[in-house]
Specification:
It is built from ten helices and 18 strands. It is an alpha/beta fold. The strands form four sheets. Strands 3, 5, 6, 9, 10, 17 and 18 form a seven-stranded mixed β-sheet that branches. The longest helix is centred in the middle third of the chain and has 14 residues. The chain is globular and about 60 Å long.
Length: 322
Amino acid sequence: MKALYLKERKQPVVYADFDDPQAKEGEVIVEVKAAALNHRDVYITQDLYPGITTPMILGSDGVGTLDGKEVILNPGEGWKDNPAYAPLNYTILGLPKFGTFAEKIAINADRVHEKPAHLSWQEAAALPLAGVTAYRALFTRGQINANKKVLITGIGGGVALTALQLAVAVGSEVWVTSGSNEKIEKAMALGAKGGANYKEDNWHKDLAGRAGVFDLVIDSAGGDGFAQLLKVCNFGANIVTYGGTRGKVNGLSPQIIFWKQLNIMGSTMGNDQEFADLLAFVAEKKVKPVIDAVFSLEEGAKAFERMDQGLQFGKIVLDVNI
């Protein structure tokens, strides 16, 4: 089969022939139709991820066919029960197990779900990892409902955009931040009420002046800007963080945390029930993930370059059929 894989550490991925997968006990072989990139894949090629081995077929998001049925793959394995946090043996497709950037994948049968019928192959491929991360952050950790005003930072990435779409589907009033006014405008076209450019001075004051205070904040950046998020929170608000692209937090005031009785929570990925609940919610509300660009599997290296540039608005998809 053809695959896009990491042949050597600290090197770009290569597109080449690879041995067909062989199903072990409890596994099935899925014919992959489309897959999608995550920052995790880029970090692995840059040797910024633990436990890297080669050769390794990357890719956590994938959809395909099994016995003629259209299926979508749960990228997480080993988190079946405890809703509080993942067990130490929890893993994600694409490392340590071979991932979805190939024409075929061997995967545990219980990772395979029916693909939401309203989604195309490309749309469905964009859903799993970003979707379950956003779903847990919003519903399990954030306790979202239609009466809560929501702020989502760093709009443009897959998780942030999916969180926006899910929150809008719930009926919440949603605002966003970005370093790009163009991305804020695109988010508003998807249902956001408005936004603020965090590159501008006193952006948080401007935002609070227009939007008021927020009951739920979903953040992926951290960094110095995180301290400003506390200032736009309502009393008793939940702040859920699932990433740290801007590094360590400085200037955080504990006085604001305890005076407003804020709840700061971490979240990442989701368990099996959350993945199933995500699929049911997406099917019911007819949510369609935002796609930034589509590449063939052979063009995979270009897809990695685009993600590394950070210019995308939505998911970058690899279509195995083109």
